[in-house]
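Continuing the batch. This is chain 6 of the set; chains 1 through 5 are on the previous pages. Same settings as before, nothing changed between runs. Recording input and output for traceability.
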Amino acid sequence: MAQAARLDRTNTEAGDLVDRRLSIMVLMGGPSVERSVSLASGEAVAAALESRGHHVRRADVSPEDLSALEQADVDVVFVALHGSFGEDGQLQHILEQRGLRYTGSDAEASRLGMDKIEAKRRFAKAGVPTPPFAVAEAGRRAAPDFPFPVVVKPADQGSSVDCSIVRGASELDAAVTHVVDTYGRCLIERYIDGPELTVGVLAGRPLPVCQIRSATTFYDYQAKYQDDRTEYLFDIDLPGELLQRVQQLSASAFEALGCRDMGRVDWMIDAGTCHPYCLEVNTIPGFTSHSLLPKAAARAGISFADLCEQLVRLAMQR
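Output for chain 6:
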C-alpha cells in the first residue's frame, strides 16, 4: 500500500513537471557528416516545443566545444545530433556525468545502435533475422562466404554515408579499402533484393510500418534528404501477417539493444521468399520534413509537436 502510494505520488510529480512550462535545451549540429541534417532536425524540434509554450535554447556542441553544457540549467536536454559523437554514446555519457536529464537511449544502447557489427550480433542472439555479414578492418580482410551482390558500408556511420552496392569481386577490394581507410572498420553484408521497410518505435511500441520507394536504385543520402521523388508508403502491398511480424521484431530489436524512448528499425524484405532482414536500429532518427519517425507517428495520429512533447515527457519521468 505504501509503495503504491509512493508510485502514485511519483507519477503525479512527473505529471506536474510536464504540465508546466519547461526549460529545454535542444542539442543539434555536432561534428559528424550528418551535421546539416542534425541542424534541420534540431530546429524543427525547437520550433515544435516552442509552439507548446516551452522555453527552448538551441545549442551546437562538439567534443571540442561543450560550453553550452556549462550553462545547462534546464529541465531536460533534447538530443537531436545524428552520427558520430551525438548518436554513438559519447554525448550521452557526458550528459550522464553532468547529471543532465536527456531524451533518447542511454550511452550504452546508443553505442550499440551505432556499432552495426555488435548490433547484428545482438539481433542474432535475440532471434531477430539479419543479413549474413563479414567484417574488414586494417590488417584483416574477411572474404564474404555469400554471393554477390553485397553491401559495403562503414560499421559506425548513419544516413547511408559511404554505403555502396558491390556487384562483383573486381569491385570489392576498392570499396572495402576506401571504407577501412576512412573509418577503420567495414561491414560487408549480403544484399537483400526486395522492398525496404522501416518501423518507428515510440516508448517501446512499434508504429505503423512504412515502405520506402526510392526513385534511384539505392536509398542513399541524397534519396533520404534531398530527392523529393522518394515515396513513403503506408498502404503496403505485402501480407498483413508479414507486416505484423516486422512490427513485433522491431520491438524485439529495439529491446535487444536496450533502447528507450524512440528509435527507427530498418528492414529489407527478400522479394523471393518474403523473409524479413533487420539492418539496424537508429537511436536518434531524423526530425526533418523527409524523416520517417515523424511520418509514422503522424500515421498513428500523433502530430509532430505531440511527438516532441511525448519524448520530453518520457525523459522527465526518469
